[in-house]
Design goal:
mainly beta, 4-stranded antiparallel β-sheet, 67% strand, 5-stranded mixed β-sheet, ATP Synthase, domain 1
């Protein structure tokens, strides 16, 4: 699935991933290929992206949108 992690100033990550782990306000969750469409709020924690290259970002808050195998994370 395609993943983009964006801040108001720049793009932190753009690329393919197999799993995205998010610190949701109601608890942590993972997004995988063919996930149902959703929008969720994020709390402070670690956002992890697992793919050909694994990356992690410390976030304070944000929003994640999942639609048609595209994940957009606004932090």
């Amino acid at each position: 699935m395609w993943v983009e992690v964006l801040t108001p100033d720049k793009s932190l990550f753009t690329g393919e991933a197999q799993v995205v782990s998010c610190p949701g306000v109601d608890g942590s969750f993972q997004i995988m290929e063919n996930h149902a469409p959703m929008i969720a709020n994020l709390r402070a924690g670690t956002l992890e992206i697992k793919g050909s290259e694994n990356q992690s970002f410390e976030v304070q808050s944000g929003l994640v949108e999942v639609l048609k195998n595209k994940v957009i994370v606004l932090v």
